[in-house]
Amino acid sequence: MISSKTIYLAQPRGFCAGVERAILIVEESLKKFGAPIYVRHEIIHNAYVVKDFESRGVVFVNDLSLVPKGAILIFSAHGVSKAVRFEADEHGITVFDATCPLVAKVHAEVVRLKERGYQIIMIGHHGHPEVEGTMGQIDESIYLIERVSDVANLNFSESDLLAYVTQTTLSIDETSEITAALVQRYPQIHAPKRQDICYATQNRQDAVKKMAPHVDVVIVVGSQNSSNSKRLQELASSLHIPAYLVDDPKQIQNKWFRGVANVGITAGASAPEALTAKIIEVVGVICQAKILAMDGVEEGVNFSLPKTLLEAA
User: Which of 77, 236, 274, 280 is most buried, most CB within 10 Å of its CB?
Assistant: First the structure.
């Protein structure tokens, strides 16, 4: 009997170039130096990846005092503040930087704007490591807003030099309402020459929108602390489609698929394809469905590894 149900696979989904680069930096460090390798914060926000690296001798820390002098330390893809870099230097730690180049671009822009006398508004989520790293590039004159209502609480004048930057893992759709409110209140505000939105974040959200008319439920592969993965779940829900965020096949529940004809599966930019494949297999068994890979943007972005790591003996 041929199943009439279909599992639609979003395209693109899963790892972006910045995440792939961060993973490769850890892999290469393990090859060259052996365990233990220390990583400040989770290298990416994915429990599956973190557990795998921990089993191979990678130690994840938030406090650099836990890193022995002379050890190998990797900064996560989210980036770090200048204070953290200074602390690593003070401790005599060898650092390889896995900060996503798109995040590093925002860091450099913040520094340039401050040098030119701008006060900077950052659009992002309080407590997210990328936000902490970006705001930590300068000592003052940077202010965080999270929602449209925060714009009314800003106290700048029309004569102030103002600029805004954004957390890269927010989509253009998410930030458009906030940026519109900023421009309306402060017409003189300086906007980025190009949106500081990660191409992968926008592409994955666009893929969910394209998939939505065909499916009755969406499974998003990603961890709860992954900003871009949670946004995919929220996006599907906003389109009135039940959506579930999972990072382990054991989390999948049969009841999600009762009365469901078609299922959509996507994955956040920090979710590995190996995990997604396991989840596709489990859903396929439950639903007895055929699998259809959707058409979508083919991403050809690649970022090189740090020269210091490539040249290391």
Answer: 77
